[in-house]
Hints:
Shape: flat
Mean pLDDT: 85
Helix content: over 70%
Radius of gyration: 20 Å
Distance between the termini: 28 Å
Number of helices: 3
Low-confidence stretches: none
Order of helices and strands: HHH
Amino acid sequence: MGEQNDFSRGSVWKHIVNLAVPMTVAQIINVLYNIVDRIYIGHIPGAATDALTGVGLALPIITMISAFANLFGMGGTPLCSIARGAHAYKRAESIMGTSFFML
């Protein structure tokens, strides 16, 4: 499928860069998408101002929802993995249940 990172070998900085670069590129693409989206919305005849106001009001709300989803999704996954590695399956199940509920 893809290359797996073995964090027990090699440089820590190399692993950080290998994981951070794709995430940074994805964020840049997302920002460019939003800019192009606003350009197209700004050219809607007769409704551009109202449409851009709607986008401007909705974007922070969507960003906050995404941030909380990432908080519980990316926070619960490593905790569940740690619990499973310690063979604490009930605790792992509880963590996943809580993360799923909060999502």
